[in-house]
Fold this sequence. Notes:
Aspartate Aminotransferase, domain 2; Aspartate Aminotransferase, domain 1; globular; about 375 residues; Acetylornithine aminotransferase; about 35% helix; four-stranded mixed β-sheet; pyridoxal phosphate binding; seven-stranded mixed β-sheet
Amino acid sequence: xxxxxxxxxxxxxxxxxxxxxxxxxxxxxxxxxxxxxxxxxxxxxxxxxxxxxxxxxxxxxxxxxxxxxxxxxxxxxxxxxxxxxxxxxxxxxxxxxxxxxxxxxxxxxxxxxxxxxxxxxxxxxxxxxxxxxxxxxxxxxxxxxxxxxxxxxxxxxxxxxxxxxxxxxxxxxxxxxxxxxxxxxxxxxxxxxxxxxxxxxxxxxxxxxxxxxxxxxxxxxxxxxxxxxxxxxxxxxxxxxxxxxxxxxxxxxxxxxxxxxxxxxxxxxxxxxxxxxxxxxxxxxxxxxxxxxxxxxxxxxxxxxxxxxxxxxxxxxxxxxxxxxxxxxxxxxxxxxxxxxxxxxxxxxxxxxxxxxxxxxxxxxxxxxxxxxxxxxxx
Length: 379
């Protein structure tokens, strides 16, 4: 008997301990984690992040936003370094996207938000309205109005939806939940130019792609653009609940006193973990090493799965990788878990890999070897 709502399809396994890039279950078995808790523990279970949490817990773990927070200021400074942004802290990616929608509407004085088919921005009402997947909206009644959905990587479809009430365009630079689909570079640059020329705000959802996941701190850095608004969560505090919205300073007047808030946003524990996470991510050569690990992992996957008729494509950006397959996803995930490897799914036919950025070469080889065995056995 469970006292929980059954809105999750939980595997009959409980992780009770973690160390580095490995999880241990209640029976003492170890698993190599190629999911990072759905893109959250980007540094693995990192001892220095743990130490930062413990130090903060010994001092004070909550203080309301009625008072100064030097920790929030330090994290914000790290997040906006090199950019003309201000930061707002909340508790999740959905909350960050809600804040972005509110800021875009209030700053522009308009209501229309264009996002993309098959996008995913969260499960609260505003974030759900921005999401271009009907399956997550079923049963919840009328959604928020003034949202429309363009075709991903198709600028003409964006232009066709623009009208005098268009406030912003909102997109993921890699659509994660729908199949690990990277945006075309030319499309992104042309979209950014179009938005700038037409005074439409560009919102980039970096909830899954941010914090080094793609080999740069922010995925938009791969595309040579600077969005007006950026949303973050998942890997920001390496497993402690947190979200953030970054917006250009010129939008500051729209978020004036009393316009938006969050009781737990910028919580001291989350900020302590986020600050140490950012320090680790900004270690010299760290991002270059992530990019090298990405090249190695993708290359090894291509070699190991070459010729397998069930493997249709391998794609991604950095350490955000999708393996498109005609095999049964649930069987693949279960067999991988039986062999001590944790992986994810995306869309209807993609195995999604979000391994820790701290992955070693030996762990790459082990993970690829396990996946090779799994695909062969399922065939």
